[in-house]
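Write out the bound-state structure for glyoxylic acid.
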Amino acid sequence: MPKPKVFVTRRIPSAGLDKIRAACDAEVWPEPTPPPRAVLLDRAAEAEGIVSLLTDAMDVPLMEAAPHLRVISNFAVGFDNIDVPAATERGIAVGNTPEVLTDATADMAFCLLISAGRRLVEAAEYVKEGHWETWEPLGHIGADLMGKTLGIVGMGRIGSALAQRCRGGWGMNILYYDVASNPDAETSLGARKVDFDTLLTESDFISVHTVLNKETHGLFNAAAFRRMKPTAVFINTARGRIHVHGDLVAALRSGEIFAAGLDVTHPEPLPPEDPLLKLPNAIVAPHIASATRQSRDAMGEIAAANLLAGLQGEPLQAWLNPEVESTRRR
Ligand code: GLV
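---
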């Protein structure tokens, strides 16, 4: 029996890749940057399974070019790169890698929150550039955390994990804005569900943990930044399109908000000449929130398990469209 043909769009940790290579006739894109669209479409023509990254668009034209495709296994928890309803219509199972990156992502959100609030990168550059002459009573003044208010947009797994850190460690008051209520967070963290405007006006720190969809696309625009406190710190570790890039630059430049810490931007990567990168009160990381050894290995294992289950017609470990079961391609 020939092994199923799969395309893996980047090298992923061997914790997953070795299993894929053992069970499949796998081609792994060897470059550090994504395969060009033409390559993706070409490989899709034969592929029975694809392991995709968040940089690879798994859209209708791709699926139309992939008559044998039975499973798309995304090496990410976010899946806005995949048209899941279109996959379901075509009998293609889709999986992602939730849970194993919750702590790593919440840690990164906190890292950005305290670093942006305390102007750490700006201060470190000041030292490196040779400006440090003495101890300055009025220099480098940043934000306090103890007892302040944290506004979470999207109180799911990662939002709750950040809220736990900030409540337990820093006694922060927790507000959240979400379509769904989170009774656990309300009971255990005293979190209060509020409307968006209350979140904007009452929070000292705002951290984004929601999915990117029609409702959240551009949620943080000029009008939203205008409603925030001038001392507020904005954190986004979810998706760059949830804030409007130019509006954020303007709000940081004019002092409408105090600082921002971003692990995600739009576009990604940001060109080095982008005005955001010239601002002292913005910290930008290259989308690395899940980049810990344990998280990335576990993501690799789930991505492999999802791929192999998809190829064998079994339930996926983390399955985004279980409703495809009755019409699945076999
Ligand atoms: C990273 O952004 C992910 O969705 O896993």
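---
The chain has two domains: 5-100+293-327, 102-284.
The first strand starts at residue 5 and ends at 8.
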